[in-house]
Write a structure and sequence with these properties.
Helix content: 25-40%
CATH architecture of the largest domain: Alpha-Beta Complex
CATH superfamily of the largest domain: Medium-chain alcohol dehydrogenases, catalytic domain
Number of strands: 15
Length: 335
């Protein structure tokens, strides 16, 4: 059986190739893809050739090759339907809608332990945003906002907006967001932010938060935003860094007030739970929270483009050159 796979071939270039796919093994199922989501942050680093070559792509996703090098497959947000069973698989899996952390492909084989069945009240368009919502939940768990705190989120792309939506459920003193794009700032307010500003107007934020922010989330993907976060954070405040900058260098001004401010810089990444949480929390428990939030936030409204898989090259070009037009781009499959 043939499948179609998306391959990053060189900076600025992706192609779709046909491959022969064997029947599923005894403990595997075959999945026909319905939707896959393009990550406008991580995937664009690979599309633009801005990824570090000495770091494994993702040690927790078996379907992704170990080391980054062109040509390569990538992607980690796919929803499909089980349409074939290995000999040892429970027949109840046939026909199930499932989520997979898997590259963009029209079909694939997987062990059932590597799939997440969709709850009956979750749609494929909601489920395809599961990794972004899991990331937002992980950021908030690591940031640990307290009652009445002044919280700022830098960046209102898809992950930033979902982080804002999760934070809006806390009894914060204020929740302020920053983004260059007006339409993202408008959506941010809809998601529950109390105020949203252009980063160029950070002086207004300093006036609003006279004592400085207690907690900042840097999820813009822009290293310069980290310097702004340091300038905005109050004494003994925290800055959670969720952005992956790839090969983009962050030049920080640490020679001023930072030295005496006792500000803490916290690195957060979704693949692993923080050690201090792992005694009570598991990935499965966190997924339970994520499924509920996908419904509550009505995340499918954040999908701005649905593009056929065969036109994937145009989808990446759109994200690369027309960022102001896109929020979440989803590839659709008809095979």
């Amino acid at each position: 059986m043939l499948r179609r796979s998306l391959v990053f071939t060189s900076p600025g270039q992706v192609s779709i190739c046909d491959e022969e796919l064997s029947p599923p093994g005894p403990d595997q199922v075959g999945v026909q893809t319905l939707l896959s989501a393009i990550s406008p942050g991580t995937e664009m680093l690979f599309y633009r050739g801005q990824f570090p070559t000495d770091l494994a792509l993702d040690e927790n996703i078996a379907a992704i090759q170990a080391q980054p090098a062109y040509p390569m497959k990538y992607g980690y947000s796919l929803v499909g339907r089980v349409d074939a069973l290995g000999a040892a698989v429970d027949p109840a899996w046939l026909g199930r809608l499932v989520f997979a952390f898997h590259p963009h492909e029209s079909r694939f084989n997987a062990r059932v332990d590597d799939l997440l069945p969709l709850p009956p009240d979750i749609t494929p368009e909601q489920a395809v945003l599961l990794p972004n919502m899991e990331t937002a939940v992980g950021f908030v768990m690591d940031g640990a906002p307290l009652l009445g705190e002044e919280v700022v989120v830098f960046g209102q792309g898809i992950v930033g907006l979902l982080t804002t939506a999760v934070l809006a459920r806390f009894p914060l003193g204020s929740l302020v967001t920053l983004d260059k794009l007006p339409h993202r700032r408008a959506i941010s307010l809809e998601m529950g932010a109390h105020a949203s500003f252009d980063p160029a107007d950070i002086g207004q934020v300093k006036t609003l938060l006279a004592g400085g922010a207690d907690l900042c989330f840097e999820v813009s993907g822009s290293p310069s935003a980290l310097d702004q976060a340091i300038a905005l954070t109050g004494y003994s405040g925290r800055i959670l860094i969720g952005s992956w900058y790839g090969t983009k260098a962050a030049s920080l001004d640490l020679g001023g007030r930072f030295h005496r401010s006792r500000i803490r810089l916290l690195s957060s990444q979704v693949s692993r739970l923080a050690p201090e949480l792992s005694g009570r929390w598991t990935k499965a428990r966190r997924f339970g929270v994520v499924w509920e939030l996908l419904k509550e936030v009505q995340v499918s409204r954040l999908i701005t483009h649905r593009i056929p898989f065969e036109q994937a090259a145009q989808a990446y070009q759109l994200i690369d050159h027309s960022l102001g037009e896109t929020l979440q781009v989803v590839l659709t499959y008809t095979d």
